[in-house]
Each structure stands twice: as C-alpha cells, then as structure tokens.
Design a protein that fits this description.
Layout: H1 4-10, H2 33-46, E1 50-57, E2 59-60, E3 72-73, H3 80-98, E4 103-111, H4 119-130, E5 134-145, H5 152-161, E6 163-171, H6 175-180, H7 187-199, E7 204-211, H8 218-231, E8 235-240, H9 262-278, E9 282-284, E10 288-290, H10 295-301, E11 306-308, E12 311-313, E13 320-323, E14 328-330, E15 334-338, H11 342-350, E16 356-361, H12 364-379, E17 381-383, H13 391-406, E18 410-413, E19 416-419, H14 427-432
Parallel strand pairs: 1-4, 1-13, 2-3, 4-5, 5-6, 6-7, 7-8
Antiparallel strand pairs: 8-10, 9-10, 11-12, 14-15, 15-16, 17-19, 18-19
Helix pairs in contact: 3-4, 3-11, 4-5, 8-9
Length: 451
C-alpha cells in the first residue's frame, strides 16, 4: 500500500535517467572534438559498423503548453529544405569519421512534429541518407506523429522506405485537459491515422499518454483509457508529466493549483496500470506496456531490453548518432549534444564543424553506475560487484537500498537488487541510490518530480 507519507517522501526532483550521468552533471571540459571522434571510431569498430540514428525535427505549427521538448513553433514551411540539407551535411561529417560504410540498425524520427515536414521532403531526406549506408536485415525504422498533422501520404511514403513502427502522441482525449495544454485532438482523427498505419502494414503502433496533466482526474483519464483500448495499440507509453516551468515557459499558462497532487497523480497512474494489465498489455520497464506478441515485450522477457535517449528499444547496439539541433549522440563511453537553437546548429554545419556544444567523457565509475541504472530500468534488477566501488560509496549505496527495502520498494537478495511491483513507479528513486552526482547541489532547478 502506498500511503501519503511515502508519496511525500519520494515525490522529489530526480533525473529521468535517459543518460548517466544526467545532462546537468556532464563535464564539458572532459571531452573535445578530437576525443569525441576517437570515441566514435572505437565504438564503431567494436560494434562491427552497426549503429542507430536519431533525427530531431524540431518544428511544430502549434505550441503544446505541456511540452518541455526542444521545438520551434512556426507555420513557415520554407524552413524544411534548409534544415534537411543541414541534417545531410552533418551526416556526411560523421561518414568521414566512420571511414567505412555503416550498417544501419535503427532510425527514429522525433521532434517537434516530424510530420510538419511534407511527405516529399521526408522521402527525399531519408533516401539521401539511406544511399550512404547498408541497411541491416533486422532494421527498425520508427517515427513519432501528431495525428492532426499526419496524412495518409506521410505514412505511405515512410512505409515504402521501410518504416514499420509508429508512435502517436495522444496524452489525453479529455476536452478540458486538451484545451489547457493547447492540444485539441479528436479521437476520430487519431483512429483514422491508426487505421492508415494498419492498412500500410505497420507492425507496431504505440500510443503516448501522459498522467499528471493539469485538470486531469481519475474519471476523465479512465474515459481516455477506454478510447485507447478500442484502438488496440501494440504498445502504450504512460509518461509522468514533467512540470518544469523554469525550462518551458509555456507551462506557465497554468499553475501548480491546476495540477493533480501527488496522491491524485498516483491514483491516476494506478488506475491506468490496472486497466492495461487487466486488458492484455504487459508492464515493461518504467513507463511502458506492450502486448505479449510485440517485440518490446519479447525483448523484455529475454533480458535484451535497452534504454537510450530514444526511450526503450529492442536494439542493444552501443553507437547512437543524433542528428539535428539538440540531438544527443552516445558512444557508450561518451556523450555529445548538438546546439539547441536551429540557427546556431545550422551555422556550425555550414562552417563544416560538428555542431556540438556540450558533452561528457564517462569515467570508469560512470560506466559501472550506468550499467546498474540500465539494469534497474530495463530488467528491474541488478547485481552489485563490491569491488567496483570504494568502501565509502558502497556503504552509502547499501544504506539507501536498505531504507528502500524497508518501504518494500525492492528486495535485497545478497548483492542483487530486485525491484518489487510496488517499487516500479519509484524506479527513478531506486536508481538515485547509485547516483553519486546527486550529492552535488545545483544552483538552479533542473529535474521534474519522481512521481
């Protein structure tokens, strides 16, 4: 049973652990362009030339006020081709670093609103990129779409190229919630896009939902769950709303008084968790559900689930190249993030310079902790090797884990940490027990609350 005291105790600001260390703790002095290139080449060889590519397409026609992603709001579609040419120029720089033709395992188009771009421009960009690679037989190409800005032609063009996975942003079908987050979206339009995807042989359809949005209630969100069930998606992502108005000024359209408190937010999550698990979807990782036939659930069962900046994935290869403004690349030994502003990004690319402004070279300790955090996020358990930690740090970790065990969020079986069903919502808290950077207090607010 989760009581109010426990919610109050653990509903604290924490990283989401899409990386470790979390971005605010990166040390940009630890890495320069030459070191970054060397790390890419080493991982490229170790991975037998296999890699994944994330492409950030930042443009949106309307501003969704809940969104904390990097985006540019405009109705000017003349920005499409210049941005695409910048993406291709950046990719050519990476091809020069690889020195051999890469084997492409995965493409993910994210945003922003990727379908802001016309079907023709998306097709042109992807064909140009694919000319330069060998496509793996087990490739997975996916795209995030906003149903209001997605046409049959979008999905048809992408299907011809080899896209078989699609993620639809829904968040909530309730009209009052949609109004306050400025995302009016009918169930009918969403259903139409799902039907198009099935007609075009997309194998995995994901629905994104967010709990904790302003004006949400258990009753209103239950209605959304009923509608989602009729769509029968293969996967469902149930994200916790991240309230970070210091980062995303649009979130000031509403106040904290409009948000569900920790208790209500927990009830909304529990309602959704029970609804999905009772209707055939299996819980995966921190915030995902999938039908037993879906590859994500199969990877979870086999212990092959992975998590990176694109979220949960079945792809375990360790080289991820991020293209576009604000994208993050990962060699497993280092991170690098591109310039966040479109203009700054394009200017660097035009100067034939990698558009990186921030990065981090992982220490050996970073790599050990990252492994444990990924295990907890993807497998709900991890085994500690005491020799990997200095004595003081090891004692600190076990002290925190024992406290979490008393609250029944995990079980300690010798040196193995096993997350309980009760603890799944608190995975970020459990991961934080290993996070030595959290002891460094930042002088500004950064993280959303854990629940």
């Amino acid at each position: 049973m989760i009581d109010s005291l426990m919610l109050q105790k653990y509903d604290i600001p924490l990283p989401r652990y899409t990386s470790f260390p979390a971005v605010p703790y990166w040390n940009p002095q630890s890495i320069d362009v030459q070191t970054w290139k060397k790390n890419i080449q080493e991982t490229f060889r170790q991975e037998n030339k296999k890699l994944s590519v994330y492409i950030h397409l930042p443009f949106c026609e309307e501003l969704c006020t809940y969104c904390a992603c990097n985006k540019r709001v405009t109705k000017n579609h003349q920005v499409e081709l210049p941005y695409i040419e910048s993406l291709l120029a950046e990719w050519r720089m990476y091809l020069n670093i690889f020195e051999e033709k890469p084997i492409l395992e995965e493409i993910h188009l994210g945003g922003g609103t990727p379908t802001f771009f016309s079907p023709q421009n998306l097709s042109y960009f992807l064909h140009e990129l694919l000319k330069t690679v060998e496509v793996s037989a087990e490739h997975e190409f996916s795209i995030e779409v906003h149903p209001n800005y997605t046409s049959y032609q979008h999905l048809e063009e992408l299907s011809i190229i080899g896209f078989r996975r699609i993620s639809l942003g829904v968040q909530d079908f309730d009209k009052e919630v949609q109004y306050i987050i400025n995302r009016p979206q009918t169930f009918e339009q969403t259903k139409k896009v799902v039907e198009w995807a099935r007609q075009l042989d997309y194998q995995s359809i994901n629905i994104d939902l967010v709990y904790g949005l302003p004006k949400q209630s258990v009753g209103s969100f239950t209605n959304t769950l009923h509608l989602v069930r009729t769509l029968q998606p293969n996967r469902i992502a149930l994200y916790s709303y991240a309230h970070v108005p210091w980062k995303s000024k649009a979130q000031r359209r509403y106040s904290e008084e409009d948000l569900p408190d920790a208790r209500l937010k927990w009830e909304i999550y529990q309602t959704a968790y029970q609804y999905f698990t009772q209707n055939g979807w299996q819980p995966i990782g921190m915030d995902h559900f999938a039908l037993p036939s879906d590859n994500l659930f199969i990877a979870y069962q086999k212990g092959k689930l992975h998590r990176n900046f694109m979220g949960y994935t079945t792809n375990t290869h360790r080289l991820l190249i991020g293209l576009g403004c604000s994208s993050i690349s990962d060699t497993w030994t280092a991170f690098a993030q591109n310039e966040k502003e479109v203009e700054a990004y394009q200017q660097k690319v035009q100067q034939k310079t990698l558009p990186i402004f921030h990065g981090h070279l992982l220490s050996e300790q970073d790599k050990v902790i990252r492994k444990h955090i990924l295990n907890l996020m993807c497998r709900h358990q991890t085994t500690i090797q005491p020799a990997d930690f200095e004595l003081n740090m090891l004692e600190s970790i076990f002290k925190k884990l024992l406290s979490l065990e008393r609250d029944e969020l995990l079980q300690l079986q010798g040196n193995t940490v096993v997350v309980t069903e009760k603890g799944r919502l608190f995975v970020r808290v459990i991961c934080a027990a290993f996070d030595n950077y959290l002891q460094q207090n930042l002088s500004f607010p950064v993280f959303s609350k854990a629940i």
